[in-house]
Amino acid sequence: MTPRIEANILQQTRQIMTEEIIPHISEQMKEFIRQTVTSEVSQAMSQMQLEPAADEPIVTQTITDDKVLDIEDRLEKCEELGKLHYVRSCEDLKSQGVSKNRSCEDLKSQGVSKNGEYYVDPDGNGQGEDPILVSCDFEQGTTSVHHNVLNQTEIPRCNDGPGCSKIELLYEAPMSQIRTLIDQSVSCSQEIRFDCLLAPLKQYGENFGWWTDYQGHPKYFFDGNYTSDAYHSCACANDCNEDNTDYYGNDIQNYIGFKVSDMSACISECQSHDDCNYWTYRKSTEQCWLKTAKSDVRRGRTVLISGPKNCQSQCIDADEVCNCNAYQNSWASDEGRITSMASLPVKSFNYGPIELEGKDAKIFVGPLICSGKHRIKYLPCKYLQ
């Protein structure tokens, strides 16, 4: 590339920076961005090895090299960030009127409008861990943290006992930052899906599959929010029960707050008594109440779950709480959304044994998706590489 062409490109770049980006950012960032972009444009141009035409005033010719397109994309991102100053979370940006569907005038006055990846700093500007890369959806007001197992993954074969195959989820952020993000959010969840062929999650009282919380503790529920480590259930059975609900009163004498091993045992107790029609289970203390009627429903009781004597399960086998527990010779699946903020994010998944031909299992775990308020830290363009 001739010096004349390079000088012209650099001049145009500086003009864009001066007229479109620099006015929107703080003084302390101006010189840094000028130097960074000028250096990178110059480096990219030198790598293109363009040959000038014979008459050389070719400075107006179109350059379509991927390097130039990459620079333009990064300049666009710099412009987006340059408008932020002290922008808060994806949720905050949405509340300020920043959305993909606003007018050009509104976008110009409000700031960022483009869904995509941004750096946020949940633990505060200049404190603790470095900022983390998240995906912002301004229409939904959500912030997502991704990991390395976002595609459906076949579980490796093993024969060393229950849970012998372990699939680790590696997140694009330190666990401390993720937990801070969760603590500052209104709600968080992760989708989970287990596909099975003659591969039950639980059979004859023994668990073969489970996910672990952020501390590595095993969890056996595949939908919703439960505090009991032993509780096993899937979405196909959860329609019967009312979480965070107390069927107050109408207790059967001698069956008031008695101890059981888990919710399934409470349901079994109700089914074994002719005068029991409903039940309430306290997850934190593993207590059970048998009820004759459901006349006073009190919601918002976060440690209680209630339901009918005979649940109309949507599972393949009505006597099971998960589709895969039906142990049938055809593919089935159990999918749900984990909403337990005390447990998230999902750290790993265990299943086994899978030693026989014709027995298979697959797992999918979605990104952690949170909504709520947390702080987006202003970052220079070098983090966009």
Report on the structure:
The chain folds into three domains: 1-82, no CATH class; 147-238 and 314-366, Jelly Rolls, CATH 2.60.120.1000; 242-308, Hepatocyte Growth Factor (3-Layer(bba) Sandwich). It is 24% helix and 27% strand. The chain has eight helices and 22 strands. The strands form five sheets. Strands 1, 2, 3, 4, 6, 19, 21 and 22 form an eight-stranded antiparallel sheet that branches. The protein has a five-stranded mixed sheet with strand order 5-20-9-10-11. Helix 1 runs antiparallel to helix 2 (27-48) and helix 2 runs antiparallel to helix 3. The relative contact order is 0.18. The model is unreliable at 19-26, 49-53, 56-63, 83-88, 97-110 and 374-385 (pLDDT under 50).
| Mean pLDDT over the full residue set | 76
Query: Number of folding domains?
Result: 3
Evaluate the radius of gyration.
Answer: 28 Å
- Kindly estimate the percentage of residues that lie in beta strands according to DSSP: 25-35%
Along the chain, the helix and strand elements come as HHHHHEEEEEHEEEEEEHEEEHEEEEEEEE
Query: CATH topology of the largest domain, anyone?
Result: Jelly Rolls
User: Low-confidence segments, ≥5 residues, pLDDT <50?
Assistant: 19-26, 49-53, 56-63, 83-88, 97-110, 374-385
Give the second-level CATH assignment, the architecture of the largest domain: Sandwich
Shape, principal axes of CA atoms: globular
The portion of residues assigned to helices is 10-25%
* DSSP E strands, number: 22
The level 1 CATH classification of the largest domain is Mainly Beta
Largest beta-sheet details = 8 strands, antiparallel
Q: How many DSSP H or I helices? A: 8
Q: What structural class do you assign from the helix and strand content?
A: alpha+beta
Distance between the termini: 24 Å
